Amino acid sequence: MMIDRLPDWRLHFDALVSERMHRPFAWGVNDCALFAADCVLAITGVDLATGLRGHRTARQALRTIRRHGDLFGIACRALGAARGVYDAREGDVLLVAMGKRTALGVMLGDGMLVGPGAGGLCSAPLSDALCAWRVG
User: Fold this and answer.
1) How far is it between the farthest Cα atoms of the chain?
2) What is the pLDDT of residues 76-119, one digit of tens each?
């Protein structure tokens, strides 16, 4: 699916990141997949997560993810083929290794990516990412 960035995407993206800076992780509201989808929505105006919204617990989220394959598969269906991590630009979605699990994050400037954590957005170096998807 080809989607374009809005002309004023930077304003929407920066506003979303600022608003989520101190908002804690919450299943179905501010989890990794929905944060990434909300960033895509802010950048493009397209909501790619309509079928992923609605869960409120870890068990429900896992069921939703399994119904769609896994996070990698969900992102590929929504954003197309994965790319190399070092091709990522600001606003692109990345798959991040977190021990035995993976999570979705979003690229910020300076080679850092962010995603929701217990106290708000957490950052990780780009070297923790496994792959990336171009947004717009």
Assistant:
1) 38
2) 999 999 999 999 999 999 999 988 899 999 999 888 999 999 99
| 74, two tokens | 């969900």
Number of structural domains (the chain) is 1
30-73 pLDDT per residue, tens: 999 999 999 999 999 999 988 777 778 889 888 888 887 899 99
Q: Positive or negative, the Cα torsion across 37, 40, 41, 42?
A: positive
Distance CA 101, CA 96 (A): 9
DSSP letter for each residue of 55-95: --SHHHHHHHHHHT--HHHHHHHHH-S-B-GGG--TT-EEE
Question: Does residue 1 lie within any of the structural domains?
Answer: no
CATH number for the domain that contains residue 88: 3.90.1720
66 occurs within a structural domain? yes
Give the integer Cα–Cα distance in Å for 79 and 77.
Answer: 6
DSSP 103: E
